[in-house]
Amino acid sequence: MSTRPVRPWKIAVTLDPAGDLPLFVQIAHALTAEIRRGRLRPGHPVPGSRALAGALGVHRNTVLAAYRELAAEGWIVSEPARGTFVSRDLPDPTPRRSGAAPRAGLPPRTAFDLAPGPEAHVPLARTPGALVLPGGVPDVRLVPAASLARAYRRAALRAGQGLLGYADPRGLPELRAALSAMLAATRGLACDPDDLVVTRGSQMALYLVARALLRPGDLVAVEDPGYRPAREALRLAGARLVALPVDAHGLDTDALASLLAREPVRAVYTTPHHQYPTTVTLAAGRRLELLALARAHRLAVIEDDYDHEFHYEGRPVLPLASADALGSVVYLGTLSKVLAPGLRLGYIVAPPPLLERAVALRSFIDLGGDQVLEAAVAELLAAGEVGRHIRRARRLYLARRDHFTAVLRDRLGDTLQFTPPSGGMALWCRVRGVDPVAWSRAARARGVAFQVGRQFAFDARNLPFVRLGFAALDERGLTEAAARMHAALADLRRPST
Question: Bigger pLDDT: 496 or 137?
């Protein structure tokens, strides 16, 4: 890094050729700082591009690029036959006091009031060398990246077909057709492409459904413990939430029936295939009871089937939506768990009146999604590439589940009690003899992160459980994670000096 004073303008410009920012951006930032400090005042000339390039030892085109950037932002103006000058109408007021230091950043608070809102959903922190056991995240290293990249490139080159313009907010027809075929083949869910809307992940799907379905003050029943971002999406739509307990057989439908006998309920949100976070499957009798209650009370059932693809013993349980003949169930699915969280693709399957509302709402926040990505994934679905990926991932996740359960029983068998899940990507473990929150903090200090029961409780009570994801790490990483958890446990139990 070197500082080269520029003469005769007496501007100190520091360039770092090895820095993260391109040189022209560094030059633009340096000149902007001079204007903010008042050393270059409105109407004053700025260095000529040749002179500045020579003083800095860079190509003139680099300086011209910096000047184009400054002109586009309104900091400088060019006057024919005269030169380039600091703008008299700056985008940001220059400090009035001579020598005043520039503001370091944005104000720490607003000058106006904000409406009450939800707390941010903060994912498990990633630090260098840390092992994260996320509760429902796939191994992104398994994604058929080369095939996806080729398909994405082919789709991007179809710009003349409108894929880079505004699109149908229902989603690309080819992807809706491919999803419709997949749902019929794997989930017994008979739906036409027009019965389906593509979204940017299942969280957007839930947000749209909540906004389309609910009125302020509507009562919505949710699982306890359950998925907190879902609860927040429902609250944002104006819902009043009531908790329904979850046991070894899934959502307690007797508790739902008792609630319905007392007051009207607009909807129930449930994860019946692998309940989030407990991983249990809703028992057959309760599935029938839930559908019967929905029919009798005109109750909307929001079914979040977030990881249907990953089952390890026997055949997967079919969605509630596959047995719904009256239009009580709104079905949410995702490809983000199948492929990667960064590929935001979810979908809604529901009767036309709700879909129409969801599409109208989506048009206000997202005009058409990512057509290129949708086209690429549609191609991979049609070619069977996604199906092959799912089968490979399922085999690997099963092996990782078995390995992790064996390691945990060996290293932490006295502390963790669990039943290996029949599907999904995580373990739900009862903790004995130690506070899960304290253990989690000690584990983070050891470089391993996991979720604790309190994060899923309806009332934020300290549940004696942890949720340990096993899909995102290979067997070596899972072994090391268990060792770090064991070391953190020893740290907690070590007498303080």
Answer: 137
Instruction: Copy the structure tokens of residue 356.
Output: 């129409």
Q: What does the pLDDT look like over 442-488, one tens digit per residue?
A: 999 999 999 999 999 999 889 999 999 999 899 999 999 999 999 99
Query: Residue 133 corresponds to which tokens in the numbers above?
Result: 């056991």
Number of residues assigned to the chain:
497
Which segment of 87-101, 231-245, 378-392 scores lowest on mean pLDDT? Answer: 87-101
The fraction of the chain above a pLDDT of 70, given in percent, is 90
On whether the CB atoms of residues 300 and 330 are closer than 8 A, the answer is: yes
Report the alpha-carbon distance of residue 270 to residue 213 in Å, rounded. 16
β-strand partners of 452: 466
**Nearest Cα to Cα of residue 142 among 373, 334, 343, 312:** 343
Q: Please report the domains of the chain, with CATH numbers, ordered by start residue.
A: 2-86 (1.10.10.10), 131-140+388-493 (3.90.1150.10), 157-384 (3.40.640.10)
Tokens coding 44: 């004053």
Nearest to 90 by CA among 158, 143, 49, 35: 35
pLDDT at 342: 81
pLDDT for 159: 60
87 to 8, 43, 461: CA distances (angstroms): 20, 6, 58
Name the burial class of residue 165, with classes exposed (0-12), middle (13-18) and buried (19+) by CB atoms within 10 angstroms of its CB: exposed
Count of CB atoms situated within 10 Å of the CB of 126: 11
Taking 50 as the threshold, does the pLDDT of residue 347 lie above it?
A: yes
